[in-house]
Model the fold of this input.
Amino acid sequence: MTILVTGAAGFIGGNFVLDWLAAHDETVVNLDKLTYAGNLDTLSSLADNPRHIFVRGDIGDRELVGRLLATYQPRAIVNFAAESHVDRSIHGPMDFIQTNVVGTCNLLESTREYWNGLAEAPKAAFRFLHVSTDEVYGSLTPADEPFRETNRYEPNSPYSASKAASDHMVRAWHHTYGLPVLTTNCSNNYGPYHFPEKLIPLVILNAVKGKALPIYGDGMQVRDWLYVKDHCSAIRRVLEAGRLGETYNVGGWNEKPNIEVVKTICALLDEMRPRDDGKSYTDQITYVTDRPGHDRRYAIDATKIEKELGWKPAETFETGIRKTVSWYLTHMAWVENVVSGGYRAWVEKQYGSEVV
Ligand code: NAD
Ligand code: TYD
Done:
């Protein structure tokens, strides 16, 4: 059996494929456009593995996707491919519309054509799992209940609006055409192979390089943090037993204000890689201009997936962040390869002279 995973040279998709191939005997076809966020170094351990087939291409390329589906006859598609960074969506929203909305629709159409042509048994067993975000639900106040699957969609950034649109398309392809879909909406992931434009890897990297640790606004924005391996196990479980057409919220039960996350990383680095001058990495914390329209709080109620499918995260924030800091300290070569000229140009554009 084979599954098609899109966007699997990225952070979560890469972790998913590594875990999948370690646990299953199925083949993975990995379709990834290799944007700035795609990095085959993450999958270098699979170079000689015949069960990993990498194809560089766009989810929106109907001809290519149609050919891949006809050739490899996957029993499932897991769609990670997306433009994923809120700050980049503020600078340039159209790439987000192109991949996250138009690309997802094209992928759904390619899938529908393939699925319609399947024999009865593989058609009944087929699944299309769409990976989405809690950001589609908008922002919470401190007093609000965490997001449930029944919350209204209120996306606030071009990124979250494009993901919300893709979720609606997936839902519509189920209700209109009967496509057997599943959707997961998860909170902020962290862990190995995370591109260092996002908060946690950025802070680890900047800290050890002696650079400023940029905190947007007052640093009191709250996110729920989910260790990436827990997210991967949730997706495997939903793929295996999720009810068709349903959405499942996936969270870590780990709500933290950004400043607390950054101080926790500093404390771990003080312990694992003390500064030469004996001072704490917290000295490098620098408050910078806030993100426009910055969502104040995200929180996930992951009761449905726990009750229906028996899934719970294995890591607490304390155990997961320790593993993550340790992983970055021992994988600096991976980081150095990722931090290309394009990455440096982004840092200059986003932080300018505020962070030097
Ligand atoms: P990422 O940016 O690290 O990886 C995205 C991957 O998709 C990259 O390898 C990129 O090359 C590829 N890609 C982009 N456009 C493509 C296209 N048109 N065709 C084929 N491949 C394309 O993202 P991530 O953090 O791994 O996120 C994966 C998915 O999970 C996304 O859909 C994202 O919205 C969702 N998600 C992420 C988080 C998080 O905290 N990272 C949280 C919730 C949901
Ligand atoms: P990020 O990792 O970009 O994820 P998202 O915006 O999807 O939640 O940011 C996590 C939080 O950290 C978010 O509230 C923005 C904040 N942040 C900073 O304070 N400084 C930074 O340099 C970055 C990248 C993010």
